[in-house]
Amino acid sequence: MKNVLVFSLILLLSSSVYAQLVTVGPKVGISHSTITSKGVDQIKAGDSSVGFHAGIFVRISVLGFYVQPEALFTSTNGQIKIDDPNSSTVKAAQNLTYNKLDVPVMLGFKIGDYIRLNAGPSFSLILNRKSESIGSEVKSNYKNATVGYQFGVGLDLNRLVLDLRYENNLSALGTDVTFGGKTFQTDLRNRLYTLSVGYKLFQ
């Protein structure tokens, strides 16, 4: 009986310590997305768009610091515009809608009991994509996987987790665009501002 009580006490303490060090939970959010272009004057960023993401996060905390890997299904949009080389008017545009699996790995620390600062790499795998040309035929070459970075600020309110982040690519989302039979070598990147809310299943 004594051994059972001792074992139960050890198990209870271990569970309490584990809950303080590790927490898991779902998270959902929205994003504001823009596709940017570098290297070609005729290709410009188009209209921004709103997307969404959903998934899970795991936070491991030690001595005021933490690492937080996440797995998120992200659906977002973007647009590029192509100027007529002979004029300053927009000749055509292309809307791009794509779904991807995002795996950010955030490193951070807490300021007081509620505020968090974090940053880290983000790995993305494109699951599927759809392009829609407006005004004229436009063909783009997009990569299947990219590496980027995120940084932002978070807020912990008991079990509620809020995150506001900025995200951009370290590797190009696309490298060339064909318009009017001519191929332009460019550097397309996806810039996002994300707002998400999560819930700690235990703490």
Write a concise keyword list for the protein shown above.
203 residues, mainly beta, Porin, 1 helix
Task: Describe, in plain words, how this protein is organized in 3D.
By secondary structure, the chain is mainly β. It has a single domain, classed as Porin. It has 1 helix and 11 strands; from the N terminus they run αβββββββββββ. β4 (65-83) and β5 form a beta hairpin. The model is unreliable at 4-19 (pLDDT under 50).
Topology:
Blueprint lengths: L1 H20 E17 L4 E3 L3 E14 L2 E19 L6 E22 L3 E20 L3 E5 L2 E13 L2 E10 L4 E6 L2 E18 L4
Antiparallel strand pairs: 1-3, 1-11, 2-4, 3-4, 4-5, 5-6, 6-8, 7-10, 8-9, 9-11, 10-11
CATH architecture: Beta Barrel
Count of helical segments?
1
Series of secondary-structure elements, N-terminal to C-terminal? HEEEEEEEEEEE
* Number of extended strands: 11
The strand line-up of the biggest sheet is 1-3-4-5-6-8-9-11
Oligomeric grouping of the chains: single chain
Tell me the helix content: under 10%
Distance between the termini: 30 Å
Q: Mean of the pLDDT scores? A: 80
The largest sheet is:
8 strands, antiparallel, barrel
CATH topology: Porin
Report strand %: over 45%
CATH class: Mainly Beta
What structural category arises from helix and sheet content? mainly beta
What sort of overall outline do the alpha carbons produce when their principal axes are compared? elongated
